[in-house]
Specification:
Blueprint: H1 2-15, E1 45-52, E2 68-70, E3 76-78, H2 82-93, E4 99-103, H3 113-116, H4 121-130, E5 134-136, H5 146-154, E6 178-180, E7 184-185, E8 196-201, E9 204-211, E10 229-230, H6 233-246, E11 249-256, H7 278-284, E12 291-293, E13 300-305, E14 308-313, E15 319-328, E16 333-343, H8 352-369, H9 392-405
Parallel strand pairs: 1-4, 4-5, 5-6, 9-11, 11-12, 12-14
Antiparallel strand pairs: 1-15, 2-3, 7-10, 8-9, 13-14, 15-16
Length: about 425
């Protein structure tokens, strides 16, 4: 037993090194795997687009014929006003945090006095508060020229002009939203505003292309658009598709300042016999464009044309179009689209901040808006007479133009219906004005 133990001891000693004892063995470092790439969402992503068009600076609720919208069944619902619009947007936004707010043009221009007297700065500030993201530029936004439109985008002091009132704030900061105009080019063939904007929501990219009325040169003063060219709406949009695909855009919404007309008897959510200059634009678009927000004609409709959803929210902030996009994030594809025009009704609690902004500008404009320049015995509307484009208010304007120029030799005065922007609503009875 001893020998066996000694031999074992010898063997153990013989295996030991003859040099100094080895340093202690450090434990092996734990291997750290590289960070995993972020997981792509697999469930459908729901994006809500809230769209308006042709707001035209209507901060106060519009009056008369323009103060309501026609619901199913022919009911006229009082609607509009910036404080109510802000409340409706806020209510709809609460349904889906993935919300983008857009406009398809003519946010400003041809505006009532409360906005117009301050060069439409009040409207831009109100839209900042509402949370507008993108404005596809309309033809009326060029009424005061590109330089002024660039100022509305970026801010800065406005040039003093006869008839305009002093600004309410020391400095105008400009729009928080982005103007878009893919088909408006300067003399260097560069777009005067970005062609599109992209929002990444829930891991998917949604693009918004702004397309200005190609026919803007025919309805705008030459000096206001000198040096600018206006490209074809559909051709411009189609040419952008490869670029957007390369950027990984899953869905694209077109903001087109062109529109159509419903047949008689339609409501703000119907689409009866859609006609008008919008249709050739729609037919020329690539089938990849499945959502088109339209404008310009001040009509309300909710249509399916050539397999795409086509909407318009009327005018003056009386409607908001709520468009729900269902997007497959795995394949980066738009699966479903649903749209609904929602009335900006007066049973909503008006947004207090926006209401206060409007009141402030109303007070500043009061020296002009409250000045009595004449009386009328009844309301003069721009509602066309049966089977003609002639309107009572248009007749009055043409008569006034003829009376003012007759001494200069004028024998005829004409007034186009589109130039009559609103009704003149009688506020007092004839007895109250002593006639």
């Amino acid at each position: 037993m001893r020998t066996r133990f000694a031999t074992v001891a010898f063997v153990l000693v013989g295996c030991a090194p003859l040099s100094s004892p080895p340093p202690p063995i450090e434990p092996a470092a734990a291997s750290v795997p590289p960070p995993a790439p972020p997981a792509l969402p697999t469930a459908a992503v729901h994006v809500q687009v809230l769209a308006l068009n042709d707001f035209h600076g209507n901060l106060e609720p519009p009056r008369g014929h323009d103060g309501s919208v026609v619901a199913e069944g022919g009911e006229h619902i009082p609607a509009g006003g910036a404080a109510y619009l802000a409340a409706q947007v806020e209510r709809l936004r609460a349904r889906n945090p993935n919300t983008v707010v857009v406009s398809a043009g003519d946010l400003t221009g041809a505006s009532p006095l409360v906005s117009n007297l301050f060069q439409d700065e009040p409207t831009v500030l109100v839209m900042n508060r509402i949370g507008l993201d993108f404005e596809g530029v309309g033809n009326h936004e060029f009424d005061r020229g590109l330089r002024e439109l660039l100022r509305l985008q970026s801010g800065g002091s406005r040039t003093a002009s006869p008839g305009l009132l002093p600004v309410a704030d020391a400095a105008f900061a400009g729009a928080h939203f982005q103007y878009l105009a893919a088909n408006v080019f300067d003399t260097d063939r560069k777009t005067v505003f970005p062609a599109y904007g992209i929002k990444e929501i829930g891991g998917v990219k949604v693009a918004f292309i702004g397309l200005t009325l190609e026919g803007t040169p025919g309805v705008t003063g030459k000096e206001a658009i000198r040096g600018l060219t206006f490209g074809n709406e559909a051709g411009t949009a189609n040419a952008l598709l490869p670029e957007l695909r390369q950027l990984g855009v899953a869905a694209t919404v077109l903001l087109v300042h062109q529109g159509g007309f419903q047949g008689k008897g339609g409501s703000f959510n119907s689409c009866h016999d859609l006609t008008g200059p919008l249709l050739p634009v729609l037919h020329a678009l690539d089938p990849a464009f499945r959502v088109v927000v339209t404008a310009h004609t001040h009509q309300a409709y909710n249509c399916q044309v050539d397999g795409r959803v086509v909407t318009s929210a009327g005018s003056f902030g009386r409607l908001v179009t709520a468009i729900d996009l269902t997007i497959d994030p795995v394949h980066g594809a738009l699966q479903e689209v649903h749209a609904e025009n929602v009335a900006v009704t007066h049973d909503l609690t008006p947004n207090a901040d926006v209401a206060e902004m409007v009141r402030r500008y109303e007070a500043l404009a009061a020296p002009v808006t409250q000045k009595v320049v004449g009386y009328q015995r009844g309301t003069l509307t721009r509602e066309p007479k049966a089977a003609s484009c002639e309107t009572p208010l248009g007749d009055v304007i043409a008569d006034a133009q003829l009376a003012a120029t007759r001494k200069s030799g004028a024998v005829l005065a004409l007034m186009n219906p589109g130039g009559v922007r609103t009704d003149l609503v009688a506020r007092y009875s004839p007895l109250e004005i002593g006639s």
